[in-house]
Every structure is written in C-alpha cells, then in structure tokens.
Amino acid sequence: MTPAFMQAISPALLDAYASKRDRDASRRLVALIGALAFILALALVPLVASGSFELGRYSTAIVYVMAALGLDLALGLGGELVLGHAVIMAASAYSAGILSDKLGWSFSAAFFPAILGGVAAGTLMMLPGLRVRGWYLALITLFAVLALPHAVLLFEPWTAGEFGLTGLRPVELFGFRLRGIGTYLLIVVWFAIVWFFREHLVRSHWGYRFRALRDLRGAAEAVGINPRDTRLVLYVVTSIPPAIGGVLLAFSERFVHFDSFNINLSLLLLTGVVLGGQGMRWGPVVGMMPLLALSFWVGPFSQLNSVGLGAGLLVCAVVFPSGLVPKLSNLLSGVGVILAKGGGRAALDAEIASYANFAEPVDSGRPNADDLVFSVRDVAKNFGGMRALSGVTLDVGKGRLVGLVGPNGSGKSTFLNVMSGFVRATTGRVRIAGQDVTDWPVHTRVRAGVGRTFQVPQLIDDMTALENIELGLLAQDCVSTFAALLLLPGARRKARQRELRALQIFAQLGLPESILDLPASSIPLGLKRVVEVGRAIASDPILLLLDEPTAGLNDEERALLGAVLVRLRDGGMTILVVEHNVPFVLEYCDEIVLLEGGTISTRADCSERLPERLRQYLSYAPDQAADARLTLEPGQAILGGPSHGP
Amino acid sequence: MTITALLIGLVTGLALASIYVLIAISVTLVLAASGIFNFAQGMLVMVGTILSFYFGVKFGWSAPVAVPLIALVGVIGGLLTYFVAVFPAIGRTKSFTHTTVLTTIGLGTAVNAIVALLFGSGNYNVPSYVSDAPVYLFSFPLRPTYLVIIAVGFGLTLLIDLLVRRTVIGFMFRATLEDPDGAELLGINTRSIILIAFGVAGLLSALAGYLVAPVIGASAFSAQELAFYGFAGMAVGGFGSFAGALVGGAVVGILGGLLPILSVDPHLTLPLTFVVVVAVLVVKPSGFWGAAGLFGSARSREV
User: Could you point out which of A316, A540, A587, B199 has its C-alpha 20 to 30 Å from the C-alpha of A296?
Assistant: First the structure.
C-alpha cells in the first residue's frame, strides 16, 4: 500500500525510479566487487614479486595511486587546479622523519601526528584558493613544489638537508616488527581505507557540495552552500590521502629526502588523474598504471618518464579530455546488467510503506512570517556610474505570487540579486521575515528561507535531475560528516528519504520520468529550468525568487509550472517571479509590480482592472489585448512594451 | 656590509629584475590576448640559453648573427606553442582555462625532458656578449653583462609598451582585449592578434634566455626557477599592466639580488618569494598595481 504522501507520484514514475535504484545498486555492487578484487590482487603481489627491492617499488606505486586519489578529490570533484600534492607528501614524510629520527618517537606514536603535519601543510598551501581561482591556484601550488627543496635546506638541523633523514625507527605494530611483506600489506590496508573513504565521501553530502562548487560556481551559494567553508573542507580532505602516503613512504623506506617529492611527482599525479578521467572512481588507478609501468621499465630517474608525462598530459587533455575510464567502461557496460540485483517496485513500495510519514515538515526554527515576508526600503544600487536601482520600496506579505515586469535594463535582475544577496545594495535596507538581512551573505539568506533560480540554469552537470533536486534538500538537512563517511544506517536511511523527497518534488513539478536518470548536461534547457525550480523549493523557502522561469518552456510545461507555483503559494510561500510572458503573469500572479528605470512605477492587484500605465505596458502584444483587464481606452498610445530578453 | 656590496647587490637585482620583467611581459601578453596562462613560457627561456651556448661556444658566432636567429626561433617556438597546446583544445572541452593549463604544462614538461635527453643534464658556461672586465661607476665595480641586461630588458619593455599604446596593431590588440567578439565584428582578425601575442611573447622569452645565459649558464633545467620568479613578479605587480610587471619584477629581482649580499642563506630567496606572492594574493588578488582590466581595458577577464 502506498502511503498518502507518495500518492502524488504516478505508478509509471515509481516504476522508473525503482529500476533506476536497481541500476544504481548494481553499479555500486560492480564497483565494490571490482575494488575488493583489486585490493585482493594488490595483497597477493608479494607472491610474485621477487625480493624486497621489487616489493618496495610496488609499495611506492601504491602510495602514488593513493595520493592521486586525493588529488582527484580536488581536481575531479571540486574542479580546483591544485598541483602541489608532492608538497603534502613531503610535509608528512618529513614530519614522520623528524618525529622518529630526531625525537625518537615510535612508528605508532609518530603516524597520526605526521599525517596531521601533512594535512596542515596542504591546507596552508591551498589557502590562497579562497581568493584566487583556476590557473592562478595551479601556479601557486606548483611554486610551492619548487620552493620545497630550498625550505628543507633552510632547516638543515631538523631535516638533515642534502643528506636526508636516515634514522627512522622500524615499523612496529602492537609490539611486532613488520618487515618487507608486513610493511607492504600495511600499505595495502591503508590503500583500502583511503579507497572507501573516497567512495563514501563522494556519496555523502560533501560530494554534492564539492561538485556544486565545481559546476555551479557563484550559484552554489544560492543552494545554501558556504563556499569558503566548503573549500576549506575540500582542501583538508584532498590532503589526507597524500599525507597518509607520505608517512607510509617514509617509514617503509626509512629514508626521507626532498628529491623524492619534486615537481615530477606532482606532474605524475596530475597526469595520472587526467589520463584516467577526472572525478571517476577508477580514474587514478587506470591513469597511473601506464605511467608507473613506464617508470618501472625505464627506471625512475630517466628523462623518458618526463617525456611520457608531458606528452601524455598534452595528448590526453586534447584528444580525450574525459580520460580513459569512460572509454573502457563503454566496453564493460554489459557486465553490470548481469550482476543487476534488486527487488524492483515491490521492494521500493515496502520501503516507502515503512517510512509512514517522513515528509512532515521539520520545524526549521525559521522566524514566523505571518505578516511581512519581505520589506525593501529605498534600495538603490549603482554599478560605477550606472544607476541600476534608484530607491525601490516594496512590501509583500505571506502567500503572495507577485509578478515583476518591466523593460530590459529596468533593474529586475539587479533587484532579484539584491534580494538574494548576490549584489549588495548601495543604500537602503532589505528585511526578510522581520530580520534585517541587508548585510547577510547569500548562503545565510538561503538558510533563513530565500530560494532562487537563475536566468541561465545552474545545475551540476554529471548528476541526475533527481540528485540536483536533492542538492536543495542538503541546505536544511544536517547529517553529521562522520556518520555520512561511515555510511552509518541512520545516514543511509536519511539519504534514501532525501531521495524520495526529491522524487516527490520531481513528480509535483510534472517532470517526465524519461529524464529521471539522465545527467543534467543532457536535459533540454526548458526542463533544466524546472529542475532548478525544484531545487529551490526543496529547501522549503518562505520566499522564492524566480528569474524568467518560463523561458524555453512549451505551453503545457508552462501551465504545469504555473499550477505548481499556485499550489506553493496556497501553502503559504511567497513567490516573486521576473517574467516577460504576459499571459503567464496575468493568469497566475496575484499582483504585478512594474519596474521602470530603476524604480517601481506601478503596483496593481491582478483581480481588478489594471491601472492604465500597466495596461499600456502589457498590451504590447496584440493577442493579449483580448484580456478584458488590458483593453485600452480609445486613443491611448502604446508604450515601449516588454521585450523578450535572453 | 659596505656600500659597494649593496650597490653590487642592487645592480645584480636589477639585472635579474629585467629578466623577470621580460618573462612576466611574455606571459601577460599571451594572457591578455587569449586568456591563456602559458605554463610553457619558461621552456622558451631555456631554449634561449641553450641556443646561446650552441651559437656562441660551439659555432663561435657573434652576437649580431646569434641574436636575430634566437629571436626567430623564439617567434617560431611561440607560434608552435599555440598550434600544439592551444589550437587543438579550442571548442573541445568544457573548461578552456582548465585544459590549456594542462596542455601547456604537458608541452613544457615534454620539451624540457627531450632537451635534457639531447643536451644532457649538465650546466655549461656561456661567455658573455661583452667583456667581463668591470666598469667603474664612481669607483664602484659593475659587471658589464648586468648593465647590458638591464638596458636591453628595460628597453624592450618600453618598446612593447609603445607598440601596444601607439600603433595600429596595438589598437587592434586592445580592441581584442576589450571585447573579442566585438573586435571580430569590426573586422579584426582576433586569431591573428592572438598569434602575434604568442610570437612576440616567444621572442621576448628567448631573448631573455640569451641575455641571462652568461649569468646562469646553459642547461635544460636552469630556466624553470627563473620562469617562476617571473610569474612571481607578475603576481606581485599585477597582471596586465606594464607598470605592474616592471615594479613586481623589480621587487622580486632586487629581493633576489640583495638577500645574498645581506649574508642570508641563499636558499631563503625562493621560499621567501613564495610567501610574499601568497601574502600579496591573499590581501589583494589583482596584485598591487594590477587593475581589473588588462592594459587599461575596461573589461576584466576572468583570472
């Protein structure tokens, strides 16, 4: 039996969702089996490797792949061009070396503090990323790699300079001394830990946030993401795998020298990640393999390594920018079908029934907005000498659907940006639900209940429509990072419920089930807009700001969206919609505000006959003149009408 | 420490600064015209040092023969950079900036390594293009090489500045910076403007290599750090402004010239420069003399 709260969802959509879940589950199963097989294979390497020298090379190779997994978090998931992971490895290796050689700490005592040293160094190195982007960050982090040997030589009494640290204590665990194979297996165990750490991180809410930073850029804030904090978390988590790798390398070789962490290592990691495929689970493994094989073949000090790295990077970035893994997985796509498991609709129905009524709105502690949802006082905004807004004053109460119209350049988008916080008003105050939010950043306003969409839809390209809607739910839903990383049952259950809630919104918006499992990059533009509306309403805002939501929609989709907006309004949401489509505004809005030259010239209730100025403005299009509210008095001139913006 | 030592340090610093300024301007020209940060620019400086070894030492050619040839190789190298690392990436990827960072790093790495394979990894001395006997300025001994570097470096910088400000090509260049699409509509071939930028940048970098070869020697690796000092000067001074490149390059150069004189550990230079760059960027991401627009254009490119 389907509980009432899910009845809005059509059986066809539920079927589609059930099979999507089964597909996801089988994909995850394939990935899990693959990962376990790979780790098992690594663990069996000592059976074929001859001698400790060869085992040492395998250890180093595994540590490099581990570091590449970390780099991929920044590069593939977060879209940050960070090239200094060699510095992180060096920092943790030197921390381990100094603690063990100079201070005499044992392996177990030095292990975690040394990782901390590496993570701290990495975070510090990437800190300028809070201010600068793109190649600028690449440059700074590469610079750090070049500065590293000099820094090591400066602190020679601690780092032993050119000679390197040689007095590291042996690897001892619970009183047992680990030798060749033991140390190797320890590295494999840590590789497995890092692998599943990454896996869980990508699926957790942090995975959503990092990708939002990458694809949404500025718009990520409109989803309630604090870019600074999220970036800091990204810098910390991307530093963890190379930091672990650095410590393991230091103790397994019992020797630390800056030459092992030069610019070639950074380039090796970078090329490996790019070659395999950025943001792909198997990317670093697949990409590093040919490079490591080359290094095994020609020896680690040959210039041929650099030739291979450089040429590989150049060719790969141009010829197959998404890497080798997508090419390979096309070949292997058949395997997933065979392994497909899952109970289809029956299992889904049973699960939904078990939730009874999770969809009860949670008390988010938001201020009660019974009277005024927002109140704008004398807001003006200058861009240089351009006056975009000059003294706008507007009060809107709860549960109103307000259309904001006006010619291009009249300041509609600026007004929306001032409301959502992307633009700071030059003068004037903005209050939302009684609170003065004029100086609040965007993401804080989102948590206070402001949702918005953009003229150009901003979605995460490689996530599905459903996952993009889920992103809006993350703003109000707080699962602890710890629980999410460990995939504790509570966090899992919550993630499932979140997905179902997103499905509800998906159904409510009348989105077709054919796009359920499509990546956002292949959804048609009009539907992207609707998905974005879904993301905005997912955070359950008290004020929803829509920037031309019907552009690119056909009549049917427009009617559906209008009905959704009306329903949301009836539920108490206040909606401010910037729109050029006059019939849409007239049919659904409660009132219309006309913005001209940066000020509100007219405000009118839609249920009554509209004032003359507004009529003149709106009746520009001939077929709309049929509307009784728009008929002009004889002899009236038609003003410059609404032009159709981009 | 004497006044003499200080002055020598200052002149050394200014000579280094001229090299950094040339590199900074090469990078800035390309960045301004195309929005690409060319990580392979240091490669052409390296090629300049190696060629000055071959031409000067192996073949025994004099400067009037060697300089035009090196300049020509620089121009060709710049154009090749465009055709190998930039042109194939156009329209193929989601993020052009992201991709060109990767391709130019890849190209630079591969070429550096190939040169190291062919040339060996040693560092060879290159005799100076002027006599090494010190000239005396008020009885202070100054190394003539440094004076030449300073004169040529700053002269070239002023020349480029004049070209950009006063000539038709300069106007087209600035129109392209302001609005590439608009410039295209005006009949300006923006592709050729970008090619010119790559060519001129290659020329400046190769000449910087030639100029600096007697100081640092010829090797496949010596130019790498040099390029980063150039970047540092640019970052401190501010991208897209000649004044910024001059001041930033001078600050970084003089820092590098004076630190050894002040009997500080020479290894302090690079880490200290790094810290200065990071500090400047965190405080003022556009650099101290950089404006939002490049070369006085009103529009800012996303950096």
Answer: A316
For A174, the token pair is 């619970």
A283: amino acid identity, one letter: G
A559–chain B nearest CA distance, Å:
34
- Mark whether A133 and A257 lie in a shared domain: yes
Do residue A317 and residue B113 have CB atoms under 8 angstroms apart? no
Q: Looking at the partner chain, which of B108, B270, B281 has a beta carbon nearest the beta carbon of A132?
A: B281
Q: Is residue A232 part of a domain?
A: yes
Between CA A126 and CA A144 the distance in angstroms is 10
Q: What is the dihedral of CA A139, A142, A146, A150, to 10 degrees?
A: 90
Last residue of one domain, picked from the residues A316, A340, A364 = A340
Inter-chain residue contact A318 with B105, CB threshold 8 Å: no
**A257 and A271 housed in the same domain:** no
Report which secondary-structure segment, H or E, holds A390: strand A386-397
Question: A residues 130-149 near B, CB within 8 Å?
Answer: 130-136, 138-140, 142-144, 146-147
Residue A452: domain span: 372-459+522-626
Asked if residue A442 lies in contact with residue A421, where contact means CB atoms within 8 angstroms, the answer is yes
Count up the domains in chain A and report the number: 3
Phi-psi region of A597 (alpha: psi -120 to 50; beta: other; left: phi over 0): left
pTM of the model: 0.89
> In this complex, is the C-beta atom of A321 within 8 Å of any C-beta atom belonging to chain B?
yes
Estimate to the nearest angstrom the gap between the alpha carbon of A480 and the chain centroid. 17
The nearest alpha carbon in chain B to A147 belongs to B271
> A150, B85: Cβ pair inside 8 Å?
no
Query: Nearest CA to CA, how far is A303 from chain B (Å)?
Result: 5
Q: Which residues of chain A have pLDDT under 70?
A: 1-8, 332-343, 354-371, 475-488, 620-646
Kindly give the confidence (pLDDT) of every residue in chain B, 303 residues in length, as a single tens digit, with 9 standing for 90 and above. Answer: 577 788 888 888 889 899 998 998 898 888 878 878 899 999 999 999 999 999 988 888 888 889 999 999 999 999 999 999 998 888 777 778 888 999 999 999 999 999 999 988 888 888 888 777 777 777 777 788 888 999 998 899 888 888 887 888 778 877 777 777 788 888 888 888 889 999 999 999 999 999 999 888 888 887 778 888 888 888 888 776 777 888 888 888 888 888 877 767 778 888 888 888 888 877 877 777 665 444 444 444 443
Tell me which chain B residues have a C-beta less than 8 angstroms from the C-beta of A153: 265, 267
Establish if A571 touches chain B: CB-CB under 8 angstroms.
no
CB distance from A295 to chain B under 8 Å? no
Chain A interface mutation, best of B102, B111, B119, B229, highest count of A Cβ atoms under 10 Å: B102
Query: Which residues fall within 8 angstroms of residue A228, CB to CB, at 6 or more apart?
Result: A130
Selected for mutation to probe chain B from A81, A150, A158, A309 (highest B CB count within 10 Å) is A150
Is residue A452 in some structural domain?
yes
Q: How much is the ipTM here?
A: 0.90
Q: Is A491 domain-assigned?
A: no
In the stretch 593-622 of chain A, residues with CB closer than 8 A to chain B read none
The secondary element (H helix, E strand) that includes residue A188 is helix A180-203
CB of B37 closer than 8 Å to CB of B27 = yes
CATH number of this structure's domain B3-296: 1.10.3470
Kindly state whether residue A132 falls inside one of the protein's structural domains: yes
* Alpha carbons A305 and A39: distance in angstroms, whole number: 26
A231 with A294, same domain? no
